[in-house]
Amino acid sequence: MNKTEKSYNSWHGPEPEIPLSVISETIETEILICGAGNAGMAAAIVAGNKGAKTIVIEKDKKMGLIKPYMGAIDTKAQKAAGNKASVDKEEIIKELVNYSTKYTDELKIYGDYKRSKYLGTNKVDEKLVRLWADESGATFDFIAEELSEYGIKHVAEYNIGHGHHGPFKAFPIHTKLLVPFHKGGIFAVSHGGVYVLEKFFIKKVKSYGVKLMFNTGLVKVIKEGNRVVGVIARKSNGKYIRINASKGVLIATGGYAANEKLIAKRNPEAVSVSTVRYEQKCNRGDGIRAGVWAGGEKDDYPSAMVFDRGPVKPGGKADVPIKAGATFDSFFMASQPFMKVNMNGKRFTSESVPYDIVLYPLQDQKNGVSCIIWDANYWKHIKSFDTIGCSRMIKSNSRPKTLEGMGFLPNYILMTLMRMKGMLKKSGTIEGLAKKLKLPPEELKATVDRYNEMARIGADRDFGKDPDTLLPLTKPPFYGITNAGWFLTTMDGLRINANIQVVDKNGNAIEGLYAAGDVAGGFFGDNLYPELCVGVAVGKTMTFARHAILHMTGNV
Ligand SMILES: Cc1cc2nc3c(=O)[nH]c(=O)nc-3n(C[C@H](O)[C@H](O)[C@H](O)COP(=O)(O)OP(=O)(O)OC[C@H]3O[C@@H](n4cnc5c(N)ncnc54)[C@H](O)[C@@H]3O)c2cc1C
What we know:
Blueprint: H1 3-9, E1 23-34, H2 38-49, E2 54-57, E3 70-71, H3 76-81, H4 89-107, H5 126-147, E4 153-157, E5 164-165, E6 168-169, E7 174-178, H6 185-188, H7 197-207, E8 211-213, E9 216-224, E10 227-235, E11 240-251, H8 260-266, H9 268-272, E12 274-278, H10 286-293, E13 304-312, E14 323-325, E15 339-341, E16 370-374, H11 378-385, H12 408-420, E17 425-427, H13 430-436, H14 441-457, E18 478-490, E19 501-503, E20 509-515, H15 536-552
Parallel strand pairs: 1-2, 1-11, 2-8, 11-20, 12-14, 12-18
Antiparallel strand pairs: 3-7, 4-7, 5-6, 9-10, 10-11, 13-18, 15-16, 16-18, 17-18, 19-20
Helix pairs in contact: 2-7, 2-15, 4-5, 5-15, 13-14
The structure holds flavin-adenine dinucleotide.
């Protein structure tokens, strides 16, 4: 084990001693789910459906946000869409397993770029990727069926634009749960805003008699021999309770993105290219810690989901501490493959690669940020870029409609908001824009001239950007914004087997203990999230949550 791995594995500290005398109450159940987010609520529906006596504890006063993009294969909605939504399973499994390796081995854009110290093979557990490929269709069909009584529809988004971003292939695995408009669905379909979906998850879970306990956080699990028999949890009033679970405990407490010190220590590269992180205040790594104290093994490498949507004012920097913010502190349009320059006014990478891959070369650039430049033709360019997933801005042509693509007006409003915040700048000339962005004017002008010349001949001789995204910047006014990463969540966690049981360092299952969602690892490697497998994070989260409950209840 090298030095980095050693320090990584020692982050959790000693297990706290909690004497029996401070336990104010003991509760009996069959299944205990810790965390009411994507994994926990999906698991609760399955447990309720199977008739198991179930409790969900949630540290926050409300459930976590159910995220909109759910990656799956062979759902009924996809089958109805026919060939357009069909995926070669073996091909996508290979893509997911090789994603981080492909980045350096095939792309070879960034030379001896720093993150390579973590690179290697066998980090992703192929058995888990295969499990997602095999069971995600049934999982989302099940959830859609369970929620159909509220009018919720499951749709397949198969429009994958050009089918690739740079050399990375896109797959039509993106599915979505749409809430009807009369039930407040307008929020459910907007970018990132699925606030109304949660009330239907809660309704469903309660209809099965599942007990939801908010303001109650997992502290540690209780083991008898090699079997986990329950947990000790802490209520927000400071009281400790014990919950015994005869069939099993599912840890679904998310990642550790809210733990600013920990992400700086464990995910230094992702943090060094981020300016803002999404606020999920309870996601501090509690579940990983509890699993490790119980003897669980965890990934020895860091992994994070970071998108290129972290705007700052001109002259701003990416680095710790990265402040917590809401969705509107990010800037969606930044994921469009417009020209990007460093603070010296020079291009440094191909802008057409996926959203986090485009970020990591910023580690070697001044301030860890880039400036994105566009012109008055931007909407035409966005149409031509035709990007996918949560970067999609033009309407999708998938049928039935998935309501993807925010459209011109909402984007214009977001641009105006960024101008009002002093982040987005506008000028009649490139040199004028450069001054406002604190870039060297002559250098930026020379870069734009060269870029326009390469656009004219249709070939990026410097970084191999896709020709369909290499469009000239000629029509004033010109716009620009200083930008780096939006840190969404961490994805390195407890190692699990294909029954979603937490395993020890020898790969042996710890009986009675399961982990699903961002608290569990083995699925994504080396900081990278494969965006073109749209929604695969929620996809594997809910698929594994279902599988864990089916295993606990003897149904697999
Ligand atoms: C803004 C945003 C948008 C995203 N959109 C997508 C998307 O569209 N598609 C996609 O695939 N991925 C998306 N992701 C990533 C995705 O959310 C995660 O990968 C994952 O699916 C989260 O599920 P989870 O259940 O592990 O965590 P969460 O949904 O975060 O749930 C964890 C829950 O556990 C609770 N908790 C924490 N500690 C404790 C404790 N000690 N005891 C009890 N409860 C605790 C938390 O309060 C929280 O409610 C997005 C992430 C963010 C931040």
